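Chain A, query sequence.
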Amino acid sequence: MPDEPAVIVKDLKLEPDAVPNDGSGAVELSATVFTKTEKISIAAVMVEADFLSPRSQIMEPEPARFIPETREGRYHLVLPVPALTDPGDYVLTVRAANILGDSGSAEAKIKVVYRRPGYEGGPLAPGNLETLARLAGVELRPGNLVRALPDGKEAFRLRMEMIESARRQINLQTYTLDADGECGKLIEAVRKKAAAGIEVNVILNLDTQLAVSARAALQLGLSRVGRDLRELVRSLDQALAGSAMLREISTGILDALGPETNGPGLNLILANDQAILGEPQEETRRRPVWLEKMSAEPKPKNGPELRSASLGFRGPGGLPALPLLSYAVHEKILVVDGARAVVGGRNLEDRYFDHWVDNDVYLEGPIVADVQRGFGRSFREFARNLERKEKVSELLPDLSPRGATAALFVQSRPWA
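Chain A, predicted structure.
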């Protein structure tokens, strides 16, 4: 038998063992903790519950069942289960350590069950917007111009007009971007703006982008490559000054790259698991609950064939994806000069504008600042996790009221 750990965690008690996900429930967890080493005290007792919080939660000792000198005894914690937590079976890990660094752990299982929230009426009913704002942890912004864009051609024309009108900054995020057809013209418009010195920041989802159009990512990425190559050529020129051969090669490269542009240019993030989660992921990482459920569902044997993506891969639900797609950037955002925004359901492929039924929303007013902050937060987080140096300028103009509609911007985090 393996040696017993120096720190013992035992007698876990979990009440209740099933909790609703309407925001009304909480789980109460207690455990006995002691160390086998004499005169050595317990340093910390934590609960790991990644489905509730990315950070470990501290358990506190129960005064009546606790030895202050060694901090051994019974520990206790109440964990609220947030509204809209994915239903499913989860594991809570209680981990304890003593002052020498020895540790031990034990696990308890909990079930989260679906329960419809207790509000009545639609999201615009009295009080419900405030409830949604509280659940999402965002502020309700009054005074906005909000215009639905059910017509695909109008939605595309508006995007092009916004991009062509940009004077300072374009922030673009999408699940897929196609280099063909009308969307190819959009890519070219974005590249022209970057070449003219406008700051352009783009976030694409790596798995789906490579499946739909690797060429679109390459076209956008070349803008950055050209800038970096110029910097490299200049550095070599300075380091090896006086070399006629190198000067001739350098001149040829710079001529081939074309006219140099001023300004920050185009910054492209291809978001993968590392960008989203912050560290290289092991194959043993637990997959999201929804993905486990979809993977376990029986597939229809005689159903209609779905049009596959260019590389032939499909993700959950038939979405275009490389194999084993799990975490993804699924927001569709366009913000121009920090003052105008489009958010919605359309990916940047022609079929979303001329064939499929979808919708977007055009925004002006105070809510645009929240969309702008959300994009910047994602870009900075992804760039940091990928050890990239690109930065998004904090362009937050003073946005006066432009209409009579109150709005919430709820960012889809985490992506899973």
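The radius of gyration is 27 Å. Residues 7-113 form a domain with the Immunoglobulin-like fold (CATH 2.60.40.650).
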